[in-house]
Amino acid sequence: MVLAITAEVDRLLASRTRDIRLTGEIYRLFRARVWSQTKIIRAWMVWVALLDVLTLALNMVMLPRATALSMLLPGAIIPPVAVAVVLIWRKPRAPWLQGASLIAGMFLILLSVALVGASAGGEFYERQLNVMLFVAITAIIIFGIPLAWTMTIAALALGLYLMLQLQNPAIAHGSAVAGTLFFASGIFATVAARRIMTILAQKTFLFELRDRRRVAQLAKANDRLVLLARTDPLTGISNRRWMTETLDRLGDGGRKCHGGAAMLMCDIDDKKLNDHLGHAQGDRCLVEVARMIQENVRRGRDQVARYGGEEFLVLLPGVDEEEAVAVAERIRQSVEAAAFPNPASRMSPSVTLSIGVAVQTTDEAISPEQLQSHADAALYLAKQSGRNRVLLHGSASFGRKHVQPAR
Questions:
Q1: Which residues of 161-247 form beta strands (DSSP E)?
Q2: 349, 342 in Cβ contact below 8 A?
Q3: Quick check: 344 and 302 in contact, CB under 8 A?
Q4: CA gyration radius for the chain?
Q5: 291 in Cβ contact with 330 (< 8 Å)
Q6: Which residues contact 56 (CB under 8 A, 6 or more apart)?
Q7: What is the pLDDT of residue 341?
Q8: How many CA atoms lie within 13 A of 23 on its CB side?
Q9: Which one of 18, 191, 192, 315 has the lowest number of neighbouring Cβ atoms within 10 Å?
Q10: What pLDDT is recorded for position 132?
Q11: Helix, strand, coil shares, percent, the chain, to 5
Q12: 2-14 and 173-229 are packed helices; what angle lies between their axes, rounded to 10 degrees?
């Protein structure tokens, strides 16, 4: 559906402006887009009804009673008709119902204006017919409706004018026809102007649809570029840039995670797979290690990034020392249990992981950079003290506890 609409929009914009015709789903979207403008139609109906009531009241005061009473009955048609049209047009309905109600309402309003003059006779006859044409022209100019509806209203106005002028005893039939032709030229020029206005409104809507699509495509492309810029192409997890930006945001906001936060710096021990088994096997090892790290953290809350060639950084918000060490130990054990071959290693025939852990408690005021530095220092000591182990900053070599690998 979206592709069909896109193709149709491009086709219409490529054609001449005067050939633009909206159909199907695009026409439905256009109607929904301009529906708010139909309040002009409702307002026009209300004002016509109010002016009609005011005119009838003035006639009762200023004109002879017999003349005023002859105008009263045909003039009373307008208020209920206008109210009915307003009620129907209060909310979107089927196009045929809206069109039929508006055309029928306009016909009754124009007929009412004309019959006021015909009933009063004399000078009022010609004057009310001219008023009827004026009412029709204002409606044509103001109503943003389909051309067929506009043409129908124009034809009804001219038809009523011609029919009643032919019955006007004050003028000859030739004068009635000539007058009708004169007014027809003006009315149809107005219809042509209204058509141009409608086509331009439709073309503007088409431009809006195209621009909206292009903006959406550009936003999608930008989002993809941002994602690519923050994603490690090999492992599919976040990269160092993304993690650095995350830490910078934490530092700039001066925020601390509820319940503290922990950082794990993970590094593959003695990794020489590329040299002995080839780059494909080395890349596969990195991908699998990244997957196992993600499987052992809380999805949607903890954050994992490839920080360097064989280093991974894990941010654990809202954990204490015991929980952080437990997560790190699960990660280490998972990698060890996977038993990826590492024939060049001097300490283990399979791939192992060393992890440095640093924890920020709720009563500490250290920056994310300091927390990362502590995790890096703990990783360094874990490497120095034998590898394949988890070391908590402040433990063992730091004078606190040291987590030995399970055997």
A1: 238-239
A2: yes
A3: no
A4: 41
A5: no
A6: 68, 71, 72, 75, 76
A7: 83
A8: 7
A9: 18
A10: 95
A11: 65, 10, 25
A12: 130
Within 10 angstroms of residue 343's Cβ, the number of other Cβ atoms is 10
Cα-Cα-Cα-Cα dihedral sign, residues 387, 390, 393, 397: negative
Which amino acid, residue 81?
V
Decide if 280 contacts 215 (C-beta within 8 A).
no
- What single-letter DSSP state applies at residue 38? G
Burial degree of 16 (CB within 10 A; 0-12, 13-18, 19+): exposed
Distance CA 166, CA 158 (A): 12
Amino acid at residue number 98:
Q
The closest alpha carbon to 133, from 72, 195, 184, belongs to: 184
Cα–Cα–Cα angle for 272, 274, 275, rounded to 5 degrees: 70
Q: How far apart are CA 321 and CA 328, in angstroms?
A: 11
Q: How far is CA 361 from CA 243, 259, 262, 369, in A?
A: 21, 7, 8, 15
pLDDT digits over 229-276, tens only? 888 888 888 888 888 888 877 766 554 444 578 999 999 987 776 666
Q: Rounded distance, CA 403 to CA 319, Å? A: 17
Domains with residue ranges and CATH for the chain: 2-213 (no CATH), 238-398 (3.30.70.270)
